[in-house]
Inverse folding.
């Protein structure tokens, strides 16, 4: 997400050179979201069929690197749009598969904590990108932020190339021996469950996942609505430079350190009341931000509170989505489910900047904040009704533990099958001799 956030403080100057306005800035932000929405289902389906997450992620990061170079060299607005769209496509691949890889690697009772940890990196990229971009722009020139992104993408590609996917190897092994496992189960008189398959549509219409999707969209809408307008507001009211605007965005980034704590709470008590309460708090702080007479320190304090609330209500989402997929019985649908997460996030990023740019131009920053607050308040009742509570969380953990026991039993049986095959081959060789 650093490639998304890093150009936020320098985007007004880029658009100004092209004689553009804040609406054009909002479109550039939204185009990134459109790219994510386009790519996420494709990469999610591909990854679920392959069982591996690494190769598609490397492809996505390579595309990100190339698109960033194109954006850096672009001199026309349409080329900026194309490059930004390609960055979104690559980002959709990486984020979808990264969440699926996390689900492969951690148990159900740790999903909230692990999601919280990942959100530190996600939000630091999304909201830490602006201060990095602003400082690099002021200190080393217009191309410095892009050089940083290129180097970061190259480092990511290297790290992924040496990643060992233990769970992917196990999934492929179980698929390979599935006929033998079924035959042995039938011989023991066990009831055979046919492999279940679920569609993206069936996942979407599940109330619990729909609530998680709304939370995801609200987070993106909340942040993306401020990103294209806050720099203009700070510049117009306080005369701040790109670097100074970037430093103000640190107020958004700092509260992400509470994300693992919020995840820990959701792992033990469920997501329902945590998410609903945090969304309501975020809306309240957004209303306070709309008060125009505040000094700069008051704005920064408000941004910290908004970031704190946002980090709290997004952390439980990974566990909620994983739980919905687990209850369908389709073990190969996690990447597709996280593609829905990405689409929801992208939808918020898509409508947020466009709506915010329009409201800001017509009515100013005050009404922009009021509109955001009203949208957040509107969805609080849905979260209270549909998100999982403590009882649902305990059921999720129990279901995960049963799945793990079955997986370990299958792997143990595969080792027995291998040993039997080896013994049979050795016996045949002795017979031939």
């Amino acid at each position: 997400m650093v490639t998304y956030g890093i150009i936020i403080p320098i985007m007004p100057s880029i658009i100004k050179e092209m004689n553009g306005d804040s609406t054009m800035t909002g479109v550039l932000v939204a185009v990134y979201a459109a790219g994510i929405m386009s790519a996420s289902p494709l990469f999610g389906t591909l990854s679920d069929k392959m069982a591996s997450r690494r190769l598609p992620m490397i492809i996505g990061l390579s595309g990100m690197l190339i698109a960033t170079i194109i954006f850096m060299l672009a001199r026309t607005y349409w080329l900026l749009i194309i490059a930004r769209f390609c960055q979104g496509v690559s980002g959709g691949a990486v984020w979808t598969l990264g969440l699926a890889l996390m689900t492969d690697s951690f148990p159900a009772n740790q999903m909230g904590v692990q999601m919280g940890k990942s959100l530190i990196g996600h939000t630091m990229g999304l909201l830490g990108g602006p201060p990095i971009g602003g400082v690099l722009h002021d200190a080393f020139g217009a191309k410095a932020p892009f050089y940083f992104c290129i180097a970061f993408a190259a480092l990511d590609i290297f790290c992924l190339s040496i990643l060992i996917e233990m769970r992917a190897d196990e999934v492929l092994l179980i698929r390979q021996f599935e006929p033998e496992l079924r035959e042995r189960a039938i011989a023991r008189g066990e009831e055979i469950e046919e492999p279940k398959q679920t569609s993206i549509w069936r996942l979407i219409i599940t109330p619990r996942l729909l609530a998680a999707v709304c939370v995801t969209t609200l987070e993106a809408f909340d942040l993306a609505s401020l990103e294209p307008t806050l720099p203009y507001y700070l510049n117009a009211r306080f005369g701040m430079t790109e670097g100074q605007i970037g430093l103000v965005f640190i107020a958004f980034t700092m509260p992400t350190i509470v994300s693992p704590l919020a995840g820990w709470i959701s792992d033990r008590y469920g997501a329902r009341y945590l998410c609903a309460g945090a969304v309501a708090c975020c809306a309240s702080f957004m209303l306070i931000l709309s008060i125009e007479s505040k000094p700069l320190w008051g704005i920064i304090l408000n941004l910290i509170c908004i970031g704190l609330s946002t980090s709290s209500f997004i952390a439980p989402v990974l566990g909620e989505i994983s739980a919905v997929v687990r209850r369908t019985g389709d073990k190969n649908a996690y990447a597709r489910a996280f593609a829905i997460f990405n689409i929801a996030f992208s939808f918020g990023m898509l409508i947020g900047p466009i709506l915010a740019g329009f409201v800001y131009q017509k009515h100013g920053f005050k009404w922009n904040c009021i509109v955001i607050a009203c949208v957040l308040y509107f969805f609080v009742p849905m979260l209270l009704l549909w998100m999982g509570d403590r009882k649902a969380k305990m059921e999720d953990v129990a279901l995960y533990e049963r799945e793990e026991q079955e997986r370990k039993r299958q792997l143990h049986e595969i080792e027995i099958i291998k040993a039997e095959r080896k013994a049979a081959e050795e016996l045949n060789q002795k017979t031939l001799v």
Observations:
- The chain has 21 helices and no strands.
- The mean pLDDT is 79.
